[in-house]
Amino acid sequence: MKRRFRFKLACVLCTVILFMTNISATAFAGLDYETVEVEGEQFVLGGGQGSTFDVVQNQFTDGAEDDSSTEVVYSSYSILSEREKEYYDRIVSTPIGETEFTIEYSPYLTKEEFAAIDFRAILYAVSFDHPEIFWYHGYSYKYRYKKSTNEVMSVIYTFMPPYVVNTEEPVYAVEDYEKINTAMWDEFHRVAEELNLANRTRYSFVNALHEYLCVSADYVINNRSCFDPYGTLVEKECVCQGYSETFKMFCDYYGIPAVCITGDGGGPHMWNAVMMEDGLWYVMDITWDDGGDEPDDVYKTYFLISIYTTPPHSSRFDESHIPDVPSYKPELNYATKAYEPVDSRNFNATYNSCVYEDKQFLVLSQFTAPDHEICYNGFLVKDILFKTGEQFTTYDDKTWTVIIAGDIDGDGLVTNLDRELATTKAISDNTSVETLQDYANDVNGDGVIDVMDIMVIQLMHTGNANDFEL
What we know:
Elements: H1 2-30, E1 33-42, E2 64-65, E3 72-73, H2 82-93, E4 100-110, H3 111-115, H4 119-129, E5 138-146, E6 151-160, H5 177-194, H6 202-216, E7 218-219, H7 229-233, E8 237-238, H8 240-253, E9 258-264, E10 268-275, E11 281-284, H9 286-289, H10 317-320, E12 322-323, H11 347-351, E13 353-356, E14 361-364, E15 374-376, E16 379-381, E17 391-393, E18 399-404, H12 416-426, H13 436-441, H14 451-461
Parallel strand pairs: 7-8, 14-18
Antiparallel strand pairs: 1-5, 2-3, 4-6, 5-6, 9-10, 9-12, 10-11, 13-14, 15-16, 17-18
């Protein structure tokens, strides 16, 4: 009995010792770790202007080549370190409504490596590159580090929402994010379809969007949604930040390089720069061009001009619009004069052409220079083979057929054979325009193949109709 008791007592004592040893080891191990909370920063909206963005202690770059792309690098993302880009990517990919994410480091980061991560620049970069993500205007984080080696093991990054000016009241409730986002994108796509943005040249795109934003949105300081694309598109109320970010949002969606620039315009202000087809950057201030709610009220004073342009009754643009400190200003290759719009060159007069919209025929003169950028109805058409019957596809996936006026046989030239074919058609029983060749034959576009067409084709053949208007 005593033996059994001693044995049981020994087992209990061993168990207690092992248990206490384990607790002590765990407690000892726990002393080697510590979690540090960092308050972070809240970007305060105020002043009715774009003062959300004050200073970013990083340098934007332009003209550099990304290793994975030949596109011009003009985004804030491009200036971030690889570790900072990891946070940027996580912010951008975080589902709407979620307010934090965790990054585990393996191997651990030294304190020096971790200190090199600029959390302020990360959120600024997201804000500048992604105006559609306006749910987060601040951040905080806490990191866990191993005290024995002074290495950072993990980080919990937390978003802070934008607050109403001078309050701690969120502009949007988290539970409403999804609804607001859906409403914004629904209106975005409605506007894009209404303006036919997918089927325009860059100038036509920028021009149509500039006019729409001026006409549709009212300049209103409501200290809530006026700072973002939702307020601009859905509620039709915004300040300069709303105009500028909404413009960039459309440009981003359709692959047009554009940036928002903050600075002093007589107060905190935001405007845009956009790269046109010539590879140069032009500035525009939609806010200052908004004169009212009608198209006739839209000014072009600050539309696709150079920073060296002096608008009427104003100072030079770079004197009236002073960007924030160069440490974050994009180094853009600005044009030295205002943009000369492609669309201002009348299509018919410049390219000697006409269009049969219902059949998607584009009729050109044989004298249209092959190196011209053909602009039709908002389409920028390049690399056309100028022969009757050649086809090209526009951005909306419509296939258009090129017809060279007078080139009935489709060899790209107006020759004596074409004159003979025109004569044969004109004296036939059916002189109406029905086939592709008939459209090439009907050079004066009156719907009938007759002696007038023969005469003009003869002039084309002899080289005396270079300036013939279709």
